[in-house]
Automatic annotation (TrEMBL):
Keywords for this protein: Acyltransferase, Transferase
Recorded family membership: Belongs to the citrate synthase family.
Catalyzed chemical reaction(s): oxaloacetate + acetyl-CoA + H2O = citrate + CoA + H(+)
UniProt GO MF annotations: citrate synthase activity
Domain of life: Bacteria
NCBIfam families, per database record: PRK05614.1
Organism (species): Nocardiopsis suaedae
Name of this protein: Citrate synthase
Lineage summary: Bacteria, Bacillati, Actinomycetota, Actinomycetes, Streptosporangiales
Record's keyword annotation contains Cytoplasm: no
Length: 429
């Protein structure tokens, strides 16, 4: 019987037999063939490298229509959230399923403020980590150890502990990230300031003077808030899928999120905006000749970074939201950033060239986020850390949703074995 009650099925005919499978429907009309009984019924598995055709769970958190360029969190279009909500409201929405009332938002923000400091022993640990280590490596290590500092909130089967861990993760990640940034950039870490809002406090810990009265640029605060919001979730991307896979073994939420940080660190996932900047440097090294660079891309001598997306076959709706922000930040600069200018020229020329539009290569969120972060003064090695802080609500929401889903089983894919068949062990002596 199909899930939507319409009794729709899909027939599989193969040499040796046939089998009927239920056809399931999502709330947006997406359809999925329920192949749970395939192996037991036919002796066959499916081969799907990268899981591009595999829905591994039902989820109520994020809806993406890649062809139409739609992204919604809990049903709300990303454009509306970007316009009307803050990152904290969206974090609450993604994790709890509904937008907070004013009172709920205040309580949530207060809990995060109170929990922002990290234990002294953890500060000692952070200070002992190699200063020249990549901030993502250090972040993953630190998040993993939260389970040890806070073993009173590491039991995945206890809802109260999960709730406490949720707040601790959201509250402490910016503090840990800022501590790492200050140390790797050679300055003294700054304690969280309970008088400040979440994003403002993060910026003050990153760039402040430590006096408590550091003036923050409102445009930069809004820019970071928006960038975090736009990254809050993206359904089963590599790091979120990793968090679910690790969590499916009943691993605690801290360890699962730490695994997500490591997945995000990969250059193909969270490292993409850093790759955009490296590409822009390459163009600068070519005397800023964007046309010559695009010809090299067409000749497959180099890669166009920040264009195209595994899921979006049209535009990435997140990139539209930050394009205006990029222009505002550029306008703010006394001396226009050369890489920023090159990015805008590259975008304009690639979008006017059928070679790229026919291949559906439109700018994605990574194309703009790196240049904005750079203009705000972030070193390149912090870009992925910012992505991690933004993605944290999504990781937490998916981990929690999975635990409440009765269909959850430990992740255990199959393989198509293509190695040697049985062969005799070489004769001895
Ligand atoms: C993301 O936001 O995680 C990236 O766009 C990658 C993805 O969704 O696969």
């Amino acid at each position: 019987m199909s899930e939507d009650g319409k009794g729709r099925t899909v027939e599989l005919r193969y040499d040796g037999g046939d089998q009927t499978f239920p056809l399931l429907a999502g709330t947006e009309g997406e359809r999925a063939i329920d192949v749970k009984a395939l192996l037991s019924g036919t002796g066959m598995t499916t081969l799907d490298p990268g899981f591009g055709n595999t829905a591994s769970c039902r989820s109520e958190i994020t809806y993406i229509d890649g062809a139409a360029g739609i992204l919604r969190y809990r049903g709300y279009p990303i454009q509306d959230l970007a316009q009307h909500s803050s990152f904290l409201e969206v974090a609450y929405l993604v994790i709890r399923g509904a937008l907070p009332s004013a009172g709920e938002l205040k309580d949530f923000a207060d809990q995060l403020r109170t929990n922002a400091p990290v234990p002294d022993e953890m500060r000692t640990l952070l200070d002992a980590l190699p200063r020249n280590g990549h901030p993502m490596t250090l972040l993953a290590a630190a998040v993993n150890t939260l389970a040890a500092y806070y073993d009173d909130s590491a039991d995945p089967t206890d809802d109260d502990q999960v709730e406490t861990a949720t707040i601790r993760l959201l509250a402490k990640l910016p503090t840990i990230a800022a501590h790492i940034h200050r140390r790797t950039s050679g300055s003294e870490p700054i304690d969280p300031d309970p008088a400040r809002d979440y994003v403002e406090n993060f910026l003050a810990m990153l760039f402040g003077q430590g006096t408590g009265d550091t003036e923050l640029d409102a445009l930069y605060t809004r820019a970071l808030d928006l960038l975090l919001l736009l990254h809050a979730d993206h359904e089963l991307n590599c790091s979120t899928a990793t968090v679910r896979v690790v969590g499916s073994s009943d691993a605690d939420i801290y360890g699962s999120v730490s695994a997500g940080v490591n997945a995000l660190f990969g250059p193909l996932h969270g490292g993409a905006n850093q790759a955009v900047l490296e590409m822009l440097e390459e163009i600068r090294g070519m005397g800023g000749d964007v046309d010559a660079f695009l010809e090299k891309v067409k000749a497959k001598e180099t890669r166009l970074m920040g264009f195209g997306h595994r899921v979006y076959k049209n535009f990435d709706p997140r990139s539209r939201e930050i394009k205006g922000l990029a222009a505002d930040i550029l306008a703010r600069q006394e001396r226009p950033d050369e890489l920023f200018q090159l990015a805008l020229e590259l975008e304009r020329k690639a979008l006017a060239d059928p070679y790229f539009t026919e291949r559906k290569l439109y700018p994605n969120v990574d194309f703009y986020s790196g240049v904005i972060y750079r203009a705000m003064g972030f070193p390149t090695n912090m870009f992925t850390v910012l992505f991690a802080i933004g993605r944290l609500p999504g990781w937490i929401a998916h981990w929690r949703e999975q635990r409440k889903d009765p269909a959850t089983r430990i992740a255990r894919p199959r393989q198509l074995y293509v190695g040697p068949t049985e062969r005799p062990y070489p004769a001895q002596g």
